[in-house]
Amino acid sequence: MDFQEQAHQHTQIRxxxxxxxxxxxxxxxxxxxxxxxxxxxxxxxxxGARRWAGNHAFLGLLETHRAFHQQAAAIADQIGRxxxxxxxxxxxxxxxxxxxxxxxxxxxxxxxxxxxxxxA
Length: 120
What we know:
Layout (H helix, E strand, L loop, with lengths): L2 H21 L5 H5 L5 H6 L2 H6 L3 H25 L3 H7 L5 H24 L1
């Protein structure tokens, strides 16, 4: 698992939300709500769970990943309802979404460090 790449992919979700607001186009909140559909989620609920279950870094990543997807879906819900200004505000620094993305990025770094230390 390339944890740095997964952090980048989740930042791209933010960019997709921004684009949806600008273009006034809905984005599927159900696809975002599930923390099992993206590559990170597939790994977390598959190979990662088999190898890392019980590891604190893994458990933290599992939780922050779920929280990120819930926040992203909430913004997609706002976009779908046509509440573009509210959705745009929800993406700003200091919001629950911004904190969820920061927490996820930090969790991915911790997981990368844990995986590296055990592989060494």
